[in-house]
Design brief:
homodimer; 359 residues; alpha/beta; Arc Repressor Mutant, subunit A; Rossmann fold; 3 domains; six-stranded parallel beta sheet; 12 helices; DNA-binding
DNA sequence: TTCAATTTGTTCGTATGTATC
DNA sequence: GGATACATACGAACAAATTGA
């Protein structure tokens, strides 16, 4: 269990790293902190002593306790000169290993080191990762945002990087509230191409399964809608099934019931290959086959698209290439050479999960 | 005027420097010093805290306060940096993402950072990685050895870590020339269990495909041989097919010719699931089916074992758990608490790629 | 310049928790 | 298990430096 003074020290450290306590300014006096945290002055002093030792604070008798930044230029962390931080949601799943591989490869070729952390798509863990990167003094940061379509409580940390002149680039998605450069796939187009392909194969009533806690899901839905508009077709909002990281496990249960009632639907656009393969299994459990009974289309061209019993029609994703692009971007940015956003265009990859329908 | 605790600290420091308090020995406990100097315990603790900070003393809870000599090598690598280097052969392939995930998870939970690099199983790249880790000043290193069964030209670097007091632990394999602690799977047993299972299912003539540039392949072969000895059966050395990282691509070509000539062989033990799935595809191209024509057994229980058309009978691998164990080991080692090697025992996982033969 | 308020520094006392031998 | 030794936490008092009225 953490001791009181450690907890208080952690909180103060967080406030420093998120720029709530600004470098060079005083923090509240001991008496105030004592009241704030409901502890004795001794305990507050222990916490402060810890942070002074770490180089986050500096005390001046009679005046106050000031925020210091000497922790950055101590031989403590890694030699910050050529270290790039990488924060992703997941490490071992899906296409993430490929992206990380692309980043690592490129960085090491150029003599940079890679400091890695993952958030498991949880904002509290994201905060911990950001604090880690700030204390380690990385010279650049590549981030895949956590829950990019929800309000993010860690924006202060990102601003903190900006104020310290540490470049940040986002991959796969970005926080719309924040003007941070990004390297993404054109997800609207991906959703559009998937939907259009099903229309072209003669499907008239489509469903969509999409994730709505991240921006990719939102944009893929946007493409789904755009294709409908272009076809001058209306779609039934009931046929849009949404889920989040937390409800992922239950999505197929609710879907089975609903799909049984919607007899018209013949084509289903999926958020990604993982969902598409899950859907195919769920359909199989209902006695429905792909592509005979339903046409299904995935996204990301992951190993899952060719791993299951049905080879998925899907959309391409740059993976390694995206990782390499992010690495190159950040290395340029560290040398003060800023470049613009980069957007990869997805392409349709036709395999076996879509059937042509003729009326 | 000097404060009381400064005076006391000065006296204790003098006693250390004049060898009255000998390096490595305990100094009198707080209660005693309190009486000696006629002050409160708190004052004694202030004095001791000062000296601990200067590196003259080291406190051990429940035991005592010891004289330390770390003040002599200050500014050196003794710093409390909390960065662990991780070097693996591959990042995005096979079971490696899971292992890395296990390491990352555990390290971050405990406030450590992870510096990542990969060698692509190439010793030159391994050297670059090791140099990077040394210059970054990591406080511990987790390594999956590159070509562990071949002479390694980078042993000097590993010795360099040892000299600097930076703990190193190897995972999956180790360099036999080097006495470095390791966390591995019992690969001999894995090979043995696989072979034994085929015997038990009635197969009498077995082949082995194994990788011989790493130790795992060597040990898995050892298990293969051990099972034969136990069965008092001879095996034909012609039926042992070996490959290396560089010849991996061609292994199935040579195998197809040879297997066509060896009519007796009905069961094949594979180095891992990747090879097993490749074999199944190569056999399919010859018009042979698994398990009807050949029984095949994989290793590592990777996602590949259930991804293909045939679900593989294989052997378990701890993956995440191994990563976590490595992380825990290195964190203990950084705190000078050394523990021994750890060996995970594999278990047989029966799926569909082995057929029972009756004569 | 002085003075009072504020803030950190030093020192005492006491009680309880927890690791080690 | 019990004694020892360090760890955490509370409370109180006065000292010393700074700040701003």
């Amino acid at each position: 269990m953490k001791t009181k003074y450690q907890v208080i020290a952690d909180e103060i450290r967080s406030k420093i790293l998120s720029n709530e306590f600004v470098v060079g300014k005083v923090i509240p006096p001991e008496l105030q902190l004592q009241k704030d945290y409901g502890v004795s002055r001794h305990t507050v002093r222990e916490a402060i002593a810890l942070l002074v030792n770490e180089g986050f604070l500096r005390k001046e008798k009679g005046s106050g306790t000031y925020v210091d930044d000497s922790y950055q230029r101590r031989g403590d962390g890694v030699s910050s000169s050529k270290t790039i931080g990488v924060i992703t949601t997941y490490l071992s799943d899906y296409i993430f290993p490929s992206i990380i591989r692309g980043i690592e490869q490129k960085l090491r070729e150029n003599g940079y080191s890679l400091l890695l952390a993952s958030t498991n798509n949880d904002v509290d863990q994201e905060r911990a990762c950001l604090e880690q990167m700030l204390s380690q003094g990385v010279s650049g940061l590549i981030v895949e945002p956590t829950k990019s379509n929800q309000y993010n409580p860690n924006l202060a940390y990102y601003l903190s990087f900006k104020e310290r002149g540490i470049p940040v680039v986002m991959i796969n998605a970005y926080y719309e509230e924040l003007s941070v450069p990004f390297i993404c796939v054109n997800d609207t187009k991906a959703g559009y191409l998937a939907t259009k392909h099903l229309f072209e194969q003669g499907h008239q009533h489509l469903a969509l399964i999409t994730k709505i806690d991240d921006l990719q899901g939102k944009y893929r839905m946007k493409g789904f809608i755009k294709a409908h508009e272009e076809m001058r077709t209306n779609f039934d909002p009931k046929n849009v099934y949404t889920y989040t990281t937390e409800t992922k496990a239950q999505v197929f249960e609710t879907l089975r019931e609903k799909l049984a009632r919607e007899q018209e639907v013949t084509g289903i656009v999926c958020y990604n290959d993982e969902v598409a393969q899950g859907l195919i299994q769920a359909l199989a459990a209902m006695g429905k086959r792909v592509p005979e009974d339903y046409s299904v289309i995935g996204n990301d061209d992951s190993f899952l698209s060719t791993a299951g019993s049905v080879k998925l029609t899907t959309l391409s994703h740059p993976k390694e290439e995206l990782g390499e692009a992010a690495a190159e971007w950040i290395m340029l940015a560290v040398q003060q050479e800023m470049t613009g956003n980069k957007i990869f265009e997805p392409e349709l990859i036709i395999r076996d999960s879509v059937k042509r329908i003729t009326n």
